[in-house]
Each structure stands twice: as C-alpha cells, then as structure tokens.
Amino acid sequence: MCVSILLNYFYIFSFFGSCLVFAGQLEQNRYHSIFCCKIPSAEYLDRKPVWFQTVMSDGHQQTSHHETNPYQHHFIQHFLREHYNEWITNIYVKPFVVILYLIYASFSFMGCLQISDGANIINLLASDSPSVSYTMVQQKYFSNYSPVIGFYIYEPLEYWNSSVQEDLQRLCSGFTAVSWVEQYYHFLKVSNISANNKSDFISVLQSSFLKKPEFQHFRNDIIFSKAGDENNIIASRLYLVARTSRDKQKEVIEVLEKLRPLSLSKSIRFIVFNPSFVFMDHYSLSVTVPVLIAGFGVLLVLILTFFLVIHPLGNFWLILSVTSIELGVLGLMTLWNVDMDCISILCLIYTLNFAIDHCAPLLYTFVLATEHTRTQCIKSSLQEHGTAILQNITSFLIGLVPLLFVPSNLTFTLFKCLLLTGGCTLLHCFVILPVFLTFFPPSKKHHKKKKRAKRKEREEIECIEIQENPDHVTTV
C-alpha cells in the first residue's frame, strides 16, 4: 500500500500534472482536446452534418469577450448554486436533517455494540464453492462442536506405562476422543489381557487388536518401526472433538492456546492441528494487531493535524466529521453482516483518508469565509467545492460496480465497506455539515464588525471642496 501511494503521488505530480497543463493550454487556445486541431468557427460548423458538429464542437459558444469563469455554467454547479444550496439551508429542512443524523448515529452506535471480532471462513471462499454450502450447514446444525482436532504424538512413548496412560487421559479430558489408545485399553480390560511391558503391549496390539474388523481402521493411526526382532511405536495420532457454545471460533482459539504450550511442557510431545487452524492463526495475527495499529494510526493523524492546520476551529470540525464517518462505517457494516476481518480493517483505515480528503476543503473554506452569515459561508463553500466532491465520490462509487460480478465473498465484503465509506462521506458533505455548520461556531460576527469599521473610516474621510474662491477652502 505504501508503494502504491508513493507511485500515485509521483504519477500525479509528473505525468498527470503535465497532462492537465497541456489540456488547459488546448482549451485556452480553442484546440480540440482529442485531435489537437483548431476548433472551427460556429458559422463553419453550422454548414456541417450533426455528427461533425458533435465531434468538433467544444460545447461553448464562441463570443467576442473572454469568459472569466466558464466553470460556473456547469450543470452541477448551476444546480448547487440555484437550487440545492437554498433548499439545504432552508429553515424547514434543518429539523429533518437533525432527525436524520440522530437516526444515523443511533444505528451506528447499535452496530458498534454488535461488532463481531471473528472472521468467517466463508469470506475466503468463492461464493459458488461447495465448501461454502458445507460450512453453512456445519455452522447451522453442528455449531456446538469444534472441528476435528488431530492429536499427533511424534516421539516414541511408553504406552504401557500407567503414568503415561494417565497423562493421555488428562490431556484428552473434556474432549470427545476417537482414539486407538482408549479403544485398546478397553479391549485389554474386556479381554482380561495383561500387557504391562513393551513386548506384550505391542504383540497383542498387532496380532489381536488390529486384526479385528471393527478396529482395522486404526492401522493408519499407528506407525511401527522394526529394529532387529523388536517392534517400536514411533508415532501415533488421535482425534479430538470439543463441545463449544455459539462463539465457537473464539473457544477453539482458546483451546489452541492451552494445548500448544502443553505440547512443550509435558513429557508427551504432541502436535494439535486442523486445516481450519491455519485460518485461525491468520486471524489472530492479521486482525488483532492491525486493529491496534489502525487505532494508533488514527490517533497519530489527528494529533499531527493540530500542527498542520489552517485554522484550529476547522481542525476541530474535521476531527468530529472524520470520527462520525468512521464510526458510521464501522457500525453500519456490522449491521450489514460484515465481520472485522483483514479487509474491513484496511477499509476502515482507508475511510480515514477518504473522509479527510473530501471534508477538509469544505470545512476550511467555510471557516475562512468572510461572508456576513454562516448560511452564506456554507453556500459559498458548497458552490466552490461541491461539484468536485460530488464528481469524485460518484466516480468512486461507479468504480465499485465491477466488484459485484466477482464470485467471491471477500470481494463482496470489500464492496460493502467501500460503498459505506462513499455513502457516509457523501451524506456528511452535502447534508449533515451544511446544516450543522449553520448552528455552531465559528461565528461570522467579527467579519461584520470589520466591515462596519471600514465603512466608518470611509465616511470619516475629509472631503475637500474647492469653492469659486481658490483661496477659500471649506472642510466638510
């Protein structure tokens, strides 16, 4: 991500900036932006077919005087100036905007209280994968049981020793075990066979226990080695299933955290594994730590902005706006069944940058405006930056449409988070901020006082009137 940001800035300041300068020169000299040829006069275009007029016209009528700001005639600019600014600052619209924000804040707060701190393995699979159907059925009907945990003993062990048998039973306590060890001990007890030494234990195991049809499936769970005439068990495996509650993933992670240290401290050397553990290890490393890093990053950005601001009050409003957008995206994506996985964490970090880029110009223009009232200041801010903000967010949202056609739940999660990011930012820039900035500081009264003082100074200037008598000067 850092490399992409650096390349993006280098691209903007080099090639893209040069293209903008070249396009501006073409537009100023009335050259075609694609064919780079001189745009014909209006009289010449009138004599040509419609398709030629459409291709070669620049969309502006050629006039004798130079138009200082043709951007004012853009249809979005015209709509904001003539219609939207008056409507959003209307006194009858403001109460509904306040109610809308209270609803927004309520749902965001409700979603923040329901954040799921576990990622769903379904998000890593293709939406049309059979594994998704299996996982959904397993979570729906068998969610009270953990995955089948492989318990692998990878060193020779004295299974016939009573102390070793007690250690194995202690390790397997609390689990439903599918174990050749338990079955073999039960077989010896029922058959009244004594196997208290190595040779008897292995002999009965190979010649009697594993020969029976109901126990033949345990052959793949025991690895024998032969040294001369003596057989040894060098490795074996058991299967464990834990009974869990609804929060299965969290409990399985706790089981892993308890069993893995035991594999190093106990006399029995073993490994516990299930294919889903790879995902759980990835979750524990890639979500918990980035949450802390994201929080630290947000705090660091907000602190640094105090030293890189145009106006302290504008920075205060920017912090409130970014916090509102960030919490809104977090709460609403939780209500939209989005878990706190790696993708959502990265999107939350991106939301911070996206909100600052779009809210900062609007807020600082408002704070530094010199109009008489707050309403006039917010109208001026929307008129100056509203079109650019609307075009940018619209292009951003349109760019998300291809993500809907990717058959991946992970990509759909990305679509949800980025859609909420663009939607919440658009809501704040065009609805919430234009209304709330008319209620709260900064006040524009000091601008009135300055203008009144200047007016008084002009009125108090001495005007000298020269009468018919040039020697007589009257002061008015």
TrEMBL record:
Task: Give the highest taxon in the source lineage.
Answer: Eukaryota
Q: Which residues cross the membrane?
A: 6-24, 291-310, 317-337, 343-367, 388-406, 418-440
The cross-references to Gene3D superfamilies, in alphabetical order and at most eight, read: Multidrug efflux transporter AcrB transmembrane domain (1.20.1640.10)
Report keywords, A-Z: Membrane, Transmembrane, Transmembrane helix
Q: Which GO cellular component does the record give, naming just one?
A: membrane
**What's this protein's name?**
SSD domain-containing protein
Organism from which the protein derives: Marmota monax
